[in-house]
Amino acid sequence: MTDHPKGYWVANVTVSDPEAYSDYQALAPEAFQKYGARFLARGEAETLEGQRWQRRVIIEFDTIEQARACYNSKEYRLAREKRASACQADIALIQGLPNF
User: Fold this and answer.
1) Per-residue confidence (pLDDT) for residue 2, from 0 to 100
2) Would you tell me which of 24, 51, 57, 99 could form a disulfide with 83, CB atoms 3.0–4.6 Å apart?
3) Which H or E run includes 33?
């Protein structure tokens, strides 16, 4: 069993301004690379219940601390500023289950 379960971002996004969103997409990879992010799923998803979103994203980090640090990093903060007017987003930070 590991002392540091993985951390995940689960993001739901609907883009309203694709051109402005491309500015976010140009900046965000720097933070993701720095904190070891791995994209597990990204794209359109079938909504079975709840609010419909245009895109869903699941990103894995080695620890929840890394996931949190990435979100709060200077690099990602700059990307978020570009994203703010370009889309509606809902992002959750989730601690993974311990490995057995």
Assistant:
1) 53
2) 24
3) helix 18-34
Bridge partners of 15?
87
Query: From CA 22, how far away is CA 2, in angstroms rounded?
Result: 37
As a whole number of angstroms, the distance between CA 97 and CA 78 comes to 31
pLDDT at 98: 82
Q: How many residues does the chain have?
A: 100
pTM for this model (two decimals): 0.90
Among residues 3, 4, 1, 2, the alpha carbon closest in space to that of 68 is found at 4
Distances (CA, A) of 56 to 3, 15, 45, 59: 29, 11, 6, 10
- H/E stretch holding 93 reads strand 87-95
